[in-house]
Design a protein that fits this description.
Its main location: other. The protein is mostly helical. The protein contains 9 helices and no strands. The protein has 2 domains: 222 residues, no CATH class; 214 residues, no CATH class. Helix 1 runs antiparallel to helix 4, helix 3 runs antiparallel to helix 4 and helix 4 runs antiparallel to helix 5.
Amino acid sequence: MAPKKSVSKAGKEFEVKKKKGGKKEPVVAVEPPLAKETKEFYHIQIRDLEDRLARYQRKWDELAVQEKLFRQEFEQLANNKKEIVAFLKRTLNQQVDEITDLNEQLQNLQLAKEMEKDAFEVQLARVRHEFQETKDQLTTENIILLRKEIVQRVNLVTNEFHKMTMNWMSETTRRAIKENNGITLQMARVSQQGMKLLRENEQLKGRQDNLCKQLELLENTQKVMARHKRGHEKIILMLTKKCQEQQQDTKEAEELRLLLSQLEQRSLQLQVDNQALKSQRDQLSLQLEQQQVDLQRLQQELANEQKVRTSLEVALVQATSFLQDILQMHPDEEDSDFDVTFQPWQKEILQQLLVMLGSTVVPRPQKAVCPHQEPQSHGPPKESRPSIQLPRTGSLLPQLSDITPYQPGDLGLIPRQAHIPPNPQDLRLLSYITRVGTFWAHSSPE
C-alpha cells in the first residue's frame, strides 16, 4: 500500500506545481529578443522596401516635374499655334485682297489699252487712207493742169502762127478770126474751169494742211500712247513682281502651314507621351501602394511571429518547469514494482507534455487528446497507482528515445541528426508557419 500513497502524493504535487506554473505564466511572458538571422532578414527587407519607396518617390517627383514642363510647353505651343494661325489668316486675307485689286486694275488697264489701241489704229488707218486719196487726187489734178498749160501754150503758138499767117494770107483771115473767136470762147471756158480747179486746189491744200495737222496730232497722241504704253508696261512689271512676291508669300504660308501641322503632330505626340507618363505614374503609385501594403503585412507578420515566439518560449518555460518537477521525484529503492506501474504513467505524462507543446506550436484541426481525459481513460486511477518515486535522469533517456510523440506536420519538435542553420534567402519561399517552426527549432537549443 505504500507505493500507491507515494504515487498519489507525487500526482498531487505535480498538479499543485502545474497550478503554480499556470499562475506564473504572465510573469514569465517576457518578450524575448529575436534571432540574429531573423533580425537581419527583416532589417534587409525593410531597408529594401524603404529604398524602393524612396526610389519610387523620386521617380514620381521627376515624372511630375516632367509632366508640368510638358504641359507648359504644350500650352506655349498651343498659344503660338493660335497666334501664327491668326497672323497667317490676316496676312493671307490682305494678300488675297491686294491680289484681287491688282488683278482688277490690270484687267481694266489691259482693256483700256486694247480699246485705245484699236481706236488709234482705226483712226490712223482712216487718216492714211484719206491722205492717200488726197495725194492721188492732187497728182491727177496736177497732171490735168499740166496738160491744160501745154494746150494753152500750143494754142498761143498757134495764134501767133495764125497772126503771122494772116499777114501772109489775107484770104484766110476771116476764117482764122472765126476760129480765133471759137478758140477764145473755148479758152474762156477753159480759164473758168482752171479757176475752178485753182479754187479746188486751194481747198485741197487747206484740207491737206488740216490733214497734216491731224497727222501731227495723231503722231503726238501716238507718242503719248507710247509713253502710256511704257508706263503701263512698268505697271505690268510691277504687278508681275508683286504677283511673284505674292506667290513667294503663298509658298511661305504653305511652309508655315506644314510647320504648323508638324507642330500639331508634335503636340499630339506630347499628349500621347503625357498620357503614357500619367499611366506610368499611376502604375508606380499602385506599386507604391502595393509595397506599402506589403510592408504593413510584413510588419504584421513580424509582430505575429514575435507573439508566437513569446508564446513558444512561455510554453517551453512551462515544459521545463514541468519536466524539472517530474525529475525531482526520486523513486524508492525498496519498491520492486516500479517498472510495472510507473513507466506507463511516465509515458502518458510525457505524451501529454508533447501534445501540449505541439498544440502550442501549430494548432491542428485534428482531434487532439485532452491532457485531462487521457489519464482517466488509459492510466490507472489515482487511488490504484502505487506510491513510487520517479527514477533518475539517466534512466529516462532510453525511455524517451523509444517514444515517438510527434505527428507529421508538428514543426520544431522532430529530432534532427545535425544542427543546420536556416538560410534567409531560402526562407522567402516558405510559408508563415514553416518559417516560424524553422527559426524556433534552430534557436531553441541555443
